[in-house]
Amino acid sequence: MGGWTIGIIGGSGLYDVEGIEGGEWVEVESPWGAPSDAVFRGRVGHAQVVFLPRHGRGHRISPSELNARANIDVLKRLGVTDVLSVSSVGSLVEDRPPGSFTLADQFIDRTKGRPSSFFGTGMVAHVSMADPVCPRLSGLAAAAARETGVQVDAGGTCLVMEGPQFSTRAESHLYRSWGCHIIGMTAMPEAKLCREAELPYALVGMVTDYDCWREEEEAVDVAQVIAQLSGNAEKARAMVLNLLRALPQEREPSPIDTCLDTALITAPHVRDPALLAKLDAVAGRVL
User: How would you label 28-58 residue by residue, b for 16+ Cβ within 10 Å and e otherwise?
Assistant: First the structure.
């Protein structure tokens, strides 16, 4: 057992949470390149917290250009034990309206060309993504969100598209036919990389719009998203504070903490030393 260090990936204003003690911005280098920004770390009660602005302060990085490997590597280097992703999403179902929060438990990855693994030639590993989120962390986040009075839907499939353009109407209807509940641009490869880094992961999707499947309404645009963001961000900050205050003092181990035990496949004598060096934080426990 040990303590909690919660890594929170989200919007630039998410770190502005009342009650953070000893808050400071920290620059951390990664062998995977530059992360989105410095991280803001501090403490709430007995929990450590590390905030990473996903798109950089001022929202300067496109979803397609995020260096997700560096972002997750940096969190791991700072001792993060669990990762909560907070992201704006569109709703693909009527009963999850703008202003509601969805705790996704499944993903369909429709991104293209984004590096989605820390492993590769010289050190191959295969982790299971059958159950891509941590039910413990998702449950804690759902309870914390409900305390704010927001509608919370526990469970659902998130379609992760490439972007940065929004969907066509045909795509939006296709994703609905697949049984998807929400749509966003950033949860992949975040969730995959967190699993490879043995970090339990949960996604809070803050609904800003109905995408473009409702034929009687205008399609989503940035102005619509921004209009909803302010209210969502206030509730997200309250959710984060509720979550940190509600964490038990001791963190019980998770099976995800040791998922690399059964994932490595490359024989030790042919492993690439250069790649192993880059994996020092992510997989150093087993290498």
Answer: bebbbeebbbbbbbbebeebbbbbbbbbbee
Confidence of residue 135 (pLDDT cuts 50, 70, 90): very high
Alpha helices, DSSP H, located in the chain? 68-77, 135-146, 169-177, 187-196, 222-246, 273-278, 280-283
Q: 74 or 13, which is more confident?
A: 74
Helix residue spans in 216-279 (DSSP H): 222-246, 273-278
What lies within 8 Å, CB to CB, of 86 at 6+ separation is 8, 9, 10, 11, 14, 204, 206, 236, 240
| Enzyme catalytic residues | 209, 211
Does 250 score more than 70 pLDDT?
yes
pLDDT confidence bin for 226, thresholds 50/70/90: confident
pTM: 0.96
22: number of Cβ within 10 Å: 8
Count of alpha carbons within 13 angstroms of residue 41, beta-carbon side: 19
Domain positions in the chain:
5-283
Per DSSP, helices labelled H in 41-168 are 68-77, 135-146
56-74, pLDDT tens digit by residue? 998 999 999 999 999 999 9
- Give Cα separations from 9 to 111, 187, 222, 245 (angstroms): 19, 10, 21, 18
d(CA 143, CA 112): 34
Kindly state the tokens that stand for 287: 């290498």
> For domain 5-283, which architecture applies?
3-Layer(aba) Sandwich (3.40)
Amino acid identity for residue 43 in this structure: R
Within 8 A by CB and 6+ apart from 269, the residues are none
Angle at 264 between CA 108 and CA 260, to 5 degrees: 65
